[in-house]
What does this fold into?
Amino acid sequence: MIDLRSDTVTRPTPAMRAAMAAAEVGDDGYGDDPSVNALERKAADMLGKEAALLLPTGTMGNITAVFAQTGRGDEVLVESTAHIYRTEQGGMASLAGVPYRVLPGVRGAVPFERLQSEIAGSGYSTRLHPALLCLETTHNAAGGTVLPLDYLAAVRALATEHGIAVHIDGARVFNAAIALGVPVAEIAQHADTITFCLSKGLGAPVGSVLCGPEAVIRRARQTRKMLGGTMRQSGVLAAAGLVALDTMVGRLADDHRRANHLAAGLQAIHPSLCETPETNIVYVDLAPSSLSAPEWCQRLGTAGITCKPYSATQVRLLTHADISDADIEAALAAFQSIWPAKQSRAA
Ligand SMILES: Cc1ncc(COP(=O)(O)O)c(C=O)c1O
It folds into this structure.
């Protein structure tokens, strides 16, 4: 099967498996797993931050960042389709106890003027203090869109002026860096804290890393413990993460190229099926067809393509390390083969 459901479905590379087997380990609960320490140091250096913390998932990284940078009487500002708001089970409110102010975005970005007016309106003693602004790049629900560097710089300056910390949910920030053609630190410099996932496009089996100032990461370490995320000989996972950082970043450009080719092929079938992606995520809007998204997925499944409905009419497709050029051609052939049948049904 050609699995286009997500870039989380990648399996560890042979080099990762070899590194995992040979990993030097210790008890990370005591801070003495050398592989974890090496991964955290490397991640912090790559992102240009003082310190880093390995966590089991991106969700735990995000909630940990919220815990570490907010308290009672604070609120979090977040874009309305952000993963941290829509998909992380309300953890900010239910676990961290911090309410959020949800703001509409355009392609994953809250317009700067809107942010300005929201923040300006917060300066009354009776209001909650917006302590943290959460951004997401690449933005999953917006279609893998990339926040521009000048937007990030302007937003960070605004936030800093008002004493608001900035957290980037950078689950796919390496995709953003590749798309922008800059080192990932150029993105991360515009945030106080940033999480990225080893287990998505970078292909490692497990793990996300929260990077930020030493003092924040110290608090985050306590939160990770509270949430049950302190692992033990997690060097086995960190070893794969190190290989991911060493070998899997540059190749993300291939995923972007393939997503682009996939989108172009779909647009050739029907121009409004999808937008041209900036990175590795293609949302296919099958509204022009008479089949629902679940029906499409079922038929594509029969043709060897695994995908999941995203809504009644939408299917989300992701390219990743286990998808080749030939797989993209096969996926396009499958779409093409189902399309005429659907057209005649519509007629
Ligand atoms: C943008 C974004 N943030 C965070 C996460 C959460 O990552 P995890 O599944 O490791 O909890 C995801 C997962 O898909 C994501 O797409």
